[in-house]
Amino acid sequence: MSEATRIVPAGVPHAGVLSALQTQCFDDAWSPSSIAEVLVSPGAFALLAVQGDAVPVGFAVARVAGDESELLSLGVVASQRRKGIAKMLLASVIERAVAARSRALFLEVAESNDAARLLYGARGFTAVGRRPDYYRRPNAVPIAALTLRLLLSSRSAP
Ligand SMILES: CC(C)(COP(=O)(O)OP(=O)(O)OC[C@H]1O[C@@H](n2cnc3c(N)ncnc32)[C@H](O)[C@@H]1OP(=O)(O)O)[C@@H](O)C(=O)NCCC(=O)NCCS
Fold first, then answer.
1. Among 7, 56, 11, 60, residue whose Cα is nearest residue 36
2. Number of folded domains in the chain?
3. Which domain holds residue 89?
4. Please, are residues 14 and 32 in contact by the beta-carbon 8 Å criterion?
5. 70-90 tens-digit pLDDT
6. Does ligand 1 lie within 6 Å of residue 61's CB atom?
7. What crossing angle do the helices spanning 85-99 and 114-122 adopt, rounded to 10°?
8. pLDDT tens digit string along 17-41?
9. Of 123, 118, 82, 122, which Cα lies nearest the Cα of 105?
10. Best residue for ligand 1 mutational test, from 28, 74, 81 (most atoms within 8 Å of Cβ)
11. 0.70 cut: is pTM over it?
12. I need a surface site. Which of 32, 77, 127, 140 has the fewest CB within 10 A?
């Protein structure tokens, strides 16, 4: 666990920072306006992992909808990986979902993303669906998406 890392709430004013972080973590990042659009939708929220003088090193975007929550995106900049930061972000998302009385937290992950699958598997997520050829990129073999679910109860809070 990284001692110097803090998890703080983020909102529409942070859409540019969130988009920049996402660009560092994914090939197909969302624009600041797309992120802002998500964040104004009901139940949506974002978190930033920051270090020192509020230097952002990771992020999560999620949404509570009825009694279910969805983790829409999560990433940590390459230089700060394997320090427990994704684990901290995930714990905070779970905490928010439990506080909102969600019964389950869902997410989608590329079948080929071993690091993320290990992260989520260690926290208790299990696969409940598979979408073949879900991630399509130019000149690349399509990759399946797995839908993962974590069942929540008041005791799931980290
Ligand atoms: C996946 C990702 C978020 C992990 O972030 P991280 O801060 O390095 O993860 P953590 O240090 O909190 O690791 C938590 C656990 O996840 C697993 N894990 C994370 N990265 C791993 C890797 N490269 N190889 C194997 N296991 C890994 C391990 O079980 C790890 O626990 P351990 O360090 O005690 O063994 C990061 O690699 C990333 O941003 N990748 C690009 C974006 C992405 O794939 N996001 C998820 C899409 S659903």
1. 11
2. 1
3. 5-156
4. no
5. 999 999 999 999 999 999 999
6. no
7. 50
8. 999 999 999 988 999 999 999 999 9
9. 123
10. 81
11. yes
12. 140
